[in-house]
């Protein structure tokens, strides 16, 4: 069986669909093996556009096909044009992913190039994406559909989708939806039990330890942590209260929490490099008990060799971490 190469959603804002796919990734597939279904186009294909493509003397660009279902994700008009040309096969790039992600790719592709989707089709597509990806922010879905974030918000309210506790933004960061309510929960926990640690409060209220620290600081100053302060007031206070000592490092989230956030990051999930990193990191997300069990069951004669290999892996990961920290924005 031929080993077909795959195309995945690119990392930067889902642009340049073919930029990370080499020429060897293009394969020719019999037209009869392909399916046309689930298109974001409500009105179907534009026959005039199909005829224009069929009359073009140049080779048609490769279409994108969902490998698992053989459904055309991007390029239905090119497929119809190839049939008018009496072609028996067509150039294809494959996409590996689930149906929901395939639909996102189809929408993005038909917004950024080719015959653009109409406003009604983009709004309909936005509703589908809101339903399938409720954890995506309005701005992130807007970047896919070519609509404004305000319009996505209206679509979300109309769809009446159950809201998650947080959403993923265009920058890949996870942010709570109702941060003031979570701050209120943290404030009540601190008042009920002042002996709770910042980590305990953060876990119970669903906020970061840094936010819990800010809530406690405002409580100690007699302020209400649930009232937002203007940004200029914060800057003035920072100037009035210079630090007399270096700030203490904040406690880091555990490996399981980090991996849970990373797995929901679309810029990682939809790129081959990102998925490779997630698989590598996932190995290290095991609990300490499982690591201890592995160590106990290493044969005595192999312990020295495995220890050396582990140290070498640690050096490689340290180098990776240092490079990422130097290039972090």
From TrEMBL:
Residue numbers spanned by region Disordered: 221-251
Superkingdom per UniProt: Bacteria
Ranges of residues in domain ParB-like N-terminal: 27-111
InterPro entries: ParB/Sulfiredoxin_sf, ParB_N
Name of the protein in question: ParB N-terminal domain-containing protein
Taxonomic source organism: Kibdelosporangium philippinense
Lineage: Bacteria, Bacillati, Actinomycetota, Actinomycetes, Pseudonocardiales
């Amino acid at each position: 069986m031929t080993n077909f190469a795959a195309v995945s959603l690119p990392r930067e804002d889902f642009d340049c669909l073919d930029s990370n796919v080499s020429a060897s990734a293009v394969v020719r597939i019999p037209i009869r093996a392909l399916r046309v279904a689930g298109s974001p186009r409500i009105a179907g294909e534009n026959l005039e556009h199909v005829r224009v493509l069929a009359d073009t003397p140049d080779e048609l660009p490769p279409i994108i096909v969902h490998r698992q279902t053989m459904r055309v994700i991007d390029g239905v008009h090119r497929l119809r044009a190839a049939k008018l040309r009496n072609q028996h096969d067509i150039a294809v790039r494959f996409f590996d992913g689930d149906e929901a992600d395939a639909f996102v790719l189809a929408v993005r592709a038909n917004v950024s190039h080719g015959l653009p989707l109409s406003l009604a089709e983009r709004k309909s597509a936005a509703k589908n994406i809101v339903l399938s990806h409720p954890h995506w922010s309005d701005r992130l879905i807007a970047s896919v559909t070519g609509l404004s974030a305000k319009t996505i918000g209206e679509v979300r309210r109309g769809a009446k989708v159950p809201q998650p506790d947080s959403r993923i933004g265009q920058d890949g960061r996870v942010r709570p939806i109702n941060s003031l309510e979570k701050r209120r929960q943290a404030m009540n926990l601190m008042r009920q039990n002042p002996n709770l640690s910042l980590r305990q409060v953060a876990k119970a209220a669903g906020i970061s330890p840094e936010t819990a620290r800010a809530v406690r600081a405002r409580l100690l100053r007699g302020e209400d942590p649930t009232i937002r302060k203007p940004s200029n007031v914060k800057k003035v206070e920072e100037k009035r209260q210079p630090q007399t000592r270096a700030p203490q490092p904040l406690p880091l989230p555990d490996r399981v929490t980090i991996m849970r956030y990373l797995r929901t990051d679309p810029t990682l999930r939809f790129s081959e490099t990102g998925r490779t990193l997630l698989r590598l990191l996932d190995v290290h997300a095991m609990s300490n008990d499982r690591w201890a069990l592995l160590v106990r069951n290493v044969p005595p004669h192999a312990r020295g060799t495995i220890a050396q290999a582990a140290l070498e892996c640690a050096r490689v990961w340290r180098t990776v971490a240092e490079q990422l920290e130097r290039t972090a924005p």
